[in-house]
Model the fold of this input.
Amino acid sequence: MQEHAYLALCSEYKAKTIADSLRQGLSALNLEGAVKRGDRVLLKPNLVMAKTPELAVTTHPEVVRAVAMVLNDCGAKLYLGDSPGFGSLERCLEKSGLMAVMRDLDITMVPFIEEAVILESENLVAKKLTLAAAAFDYDKIINLPKLKTHSMMGTSLAVKNLFGFIPGLRKAKWHLRAGHDRHLFARVMLDIYRQTVPTWNFLDGIVGMEGEGPTGGTPRDCCLLALSADAPLLDYLVEKWIGYPELTPLSQEAHNLGWLPEENLYACGSAALKQLSPAIKPAKGANQATFPGQRLWRRIFIRRPVITRSRCHRCKVCVEHCPAHAMKLVDGKIVIDYKRCIRCYCCQELCPYGAVRVGYGVGR
Ligand code: SF4
Ligand code: SF4
Done:
């Protein structure tokens, strides 16, 4: 039987240990030759915002260092890019510790500024999709997600990490189009995956995030490294491993497409027969059921963003990025128009001060 994923226990951020584990995984999955001498390889970490490594918001620099060490041994030329949800790429790289790794290992920075428009009638939702041109400028993409819970999508793993290929404020437009529909949003993610298809995906779950992810949750020692050439399959297996209480919309949609055949759902590695205990704590807004009439139901009862005024610095990041233009600064306070709010939780994701929580709110 050929396993399609490698799940390994790893309890510390030591590049050599991580690189050894990655090499074992590549060998076990027959991926050793996937990157060849001279290949131009784009690394895509999670750099959603400028946060220090111990907060578990971004891919840890020692994981990127380990991957770069392995790829340097293959003779690849390395590049690294992202389109952060908030802030400049340079600032995110400095704060996350990745810039130092890039200097040490001669990795070239690639801001996702230039765009490429893809017209693809086979796409599930995004028949016209604008992605960062970088998605097509390199021989290989290596996806380096962080293990996190996510207020809207349940988890943020390998497929979700590719949303960073949507340049800048175009992300907000997709949030606006998907609105409350987590399954529509999942299908957009799968369209992005089909266009980018990373050569392999290596997930940093040594310290993951639980609770109010993907930026406001709590770091959690998960001691997991996970590798696969198949991002939806990796996500499915990692969700099972962390004890996520239900199939996330992404895994449900991947399953509906036949992308998770039973015979492929096997992993090897030191963590393959284990599970996270106790199970990961999901984000509060993540398990809203969907059913006919949900729109009205959601408008009335769905958890909504609430500003914690004592934490708010009135920086207006949330106002500037709210895709529904539902937020305003009025008399020194952030005010949310819940009639306009689509509950995408971008404001929670992007608030640099953790001032947006997701809470119950009966009413509009
Ligand atoms: S809620 Fe957060 S993002 Fe919005 S103004 Fe306050 S501190 Fe800034
Ligand atoms: S207020 Fe927050 S949750 Fe509501 S639409 Fe704006 S960014 Fe999304």
Observations:
- The pocket of iron/sulfur cluster (ligand 1) is lined by residues 307, 312-318, 334, 351, 353, 355-356 (CB under 6 Å).
- Confidence is low (pLDDT under 50) at residues 289-294.
- The CA atoms of residues 24 and 156 lie 25 Å apart.
